[in-house]
Amino acid sequence: MEPFITLGISLGLGLLIGLQRERTEVRFGGIRTFPLISLFGTFCGMLGERFGAWPIAAGVVAIFGTLLISDLVSAKREDSEHGQTTEIAALLTFAIGAYLPMGDRAVAAVAAGLVVILLHLKEPMHVFVRKMGPKDIAAIMQLVVISLIILPLLPNREFGPLRVLNPFDIWRMVVLIVGLSLLGYIIYKLVGPTASLVLGGVLGGLISSTATTVSYARRARGAPAAHMLAVAVILIASAVSYLRVIVEVSLFAPSHLAALLPPLAIAFVWVGSIAAVAFLLFRGEREEMPSPTNPAELKSALVFGLIYAVITLTVAAVKQQFGATGLYVVAAVSGLTDMDAITLSLSRMVESNHLEANNAWRLILAASLSNFVFKGIAATFLGGRSFGLRLAPFFGAALLGGLLVLWFWPRGWAVPE
Questions:
Q1: CA pair distance 147, 102, nearest whole angstrom
Q2: What CA–CA distance (Å, rounded) separates 238 from 41?
Q3: pLDDT surpassing 70 at residue 78
Q4: Are 35 and 130 in contact (CB under 8 A)?
Q5: What whole-number distance in Å separates Cα of residue 21 and Cα of residue 75?
Q6: Engineering a disulfide at 259: which of 57, 243, 403, 414 sits with its beta carbon 3.0 to 4.6 angstroms away?
Q7: Is residue 34 classed as helix, strand or coil in its secondary structure?
Q8: What's the rounded Cα separation, in Å, for the pair 147 and 126?
Q9: Among residues 292, 114, 338, 287, which one has the least CA distance to residue 186?
Q10: 302: which residues sit within 8 A by CB, 6+ positions away?
Q11: Helix (H) or strand (E) holding 85
Q12: DSSP readout, 273-295?
């Protein structure tokens, strides 16, 4: 019975890939050819279980020869547009079929799904490449260097005073933050400089709510009519920054989420509600977003890594000398311009049981309130007194909500498991 199930799965996966190819103007393969290739691969895999690897090797040669003959025939046609995508898809279909008898069916299904997705996204991917300039491609390449070249080379052990500086962990945080920021940057490049109010704020929060505040405050100084629109974008970006904090906490303190997430989620909902009020007042507006800088620059990554290392060391030293109470000063200072470093540092301390979760979320929330203060001062200085007065009630409400959570949230309370 098992061989028949394997053949049925092979047929289904081949049909899936063949269906996608049938809808394109390709001269090789379609709804019948790809299932046959998949079944051929499966039979070669079954023979390989009994006679060794040579039936699979012979199958690869046979498929490759068939594809070569097809290419030679189509190349003689004057209207032929030669490409290798379908041929590579055919080889992958054979490989998936051959893998099924000996491998994990779930892996084969995922592989077939990825093939179909990549084939189907031809036009969007080409549009994406056309919209990305040389600097943008360089940003992606820099992320590859940061994550796939530098990270594996770093030692994964503690160094320095108090034995809290782990080069691998520090750089892993750099990769996470650069990756999140680059995601927002790529979305910005895809949607263009003109986007809706909500999208402008969401992208600003993904890239940097502080940078978004500075950018819109500068523009608001010379455009009084756009003051309230700038306020709405800044508030949306600030709400998304809380969501970014929640993601970071979930990734690096997963065993303490019952205590960490509820108060942070309430803060997110509160600031999000304030942003929603601003959005309802100015919905339908369209505005050009300030062009963000490349978030994957190696210099920026090194600066963030240094900041994170300094904060990690400072948090450990202050906790040792003054206890958890002294950490509020560190959180307030570090949160002035950047929320990521203190959030990641505290999350790691919680996960390693060096800090109580109920102290950690309070410190993170205190850092976020400090960040609001800094953004409010910067916005008033850059956007002018009138812009600061328009922003003040909204930021005041956000600060008040955060303070109320800090004061009235029951110490030691967590979501029941």
A1: 33
A2: 53
A3: no
A4: no
A5: 19
A6: 414
A7: helix
A8: 25
A9: 292
A10: none
A11: helix 85-99
A12: HHHHHHHHHHTT-EEEPPPPP-T
Structure confidence at residue 372 (pLDDT): 93
Q: At what angle do helices 357-383 and 257-282 cross, to 10 degrees?
A: 20
DSSP label of 159 = B
For the segment 132-143, the average pLDDT, to the nearest whole number, is 76
pLDDT tens-place string over residues 141-196: 888 888 888 888 888 888 877 777 888 888 887 887 777 677 767 777 766 655 55
Judge contact between 42 and 30, C-beta under 8 A.
no
**Nearest by Cα to 218 from 239, 233, 240:** 233
User: What is d(CA 278, CA 284) in angstroms, rounded to the nearest whole number?
Assistant: 12
- How many residues can be counted in the chain? 417
Q: Tokens 């942070």 belong to which residue?
A: 264
Quickly list DSSP for 296-310: T-HHHHHHHHHHHHH
Q: Strand 286-288 to strand 194-196: parallel, antiparallel, or no bridges (unpaired)?
A: antiparallel
The tokens for 409 are 């949230």
Overall pTM surpassing 0.90 (yes/no): no
- Rounded to 10°, the helix 85-99/105-120 angle is 170
- Tokens representing residue 65 in the block: 């020869």
The highest-confidence range among 79-83, 151-155, 304-308, by mean pLDDT, is: 151-155
* Residue 29, SS3 per DSSP: coil
Cβ atoms of 67 and 85 closer than 8 Å: no
Residue with tokens 């629109």: 229
Q: Quick check: helix, strand or coil at residue 361?
A: helix
pLDDT in tens, 38-65: 999 999 989 988 888 888 888 888 888 8
What percent of the chain lies above the pLDDT cut of 90? 19
Closest CA to 155 of 145, 146, 165: 165
Question: C-alpha angle with apex 77: 88 to 125, nearest 5 degrees?
Answer: 40
What's the gap between Cα 1 and its chain centre? Answer: 43
The percent helix, strand, coil of the chain (3-state, each to 5) is: 80, 0, 20
**296 and 146 Cβ atoms separated by less than 8 Å:** yes
Among 49, 48, 67, 68, smallest CA distance to 58 is for: 48
The predicted structure's pLDDT at residue 75? 62
Q: d(Cα 113, Cα 105) in Å, to the nearest integer? A: 12
The greatest distance separating any two alpha carbons of the chain, rounded to the nearest whole angstrom, comes to 82
More confident residue, 153 or 294: 153
CB 26 within 8 A of CB 122: no
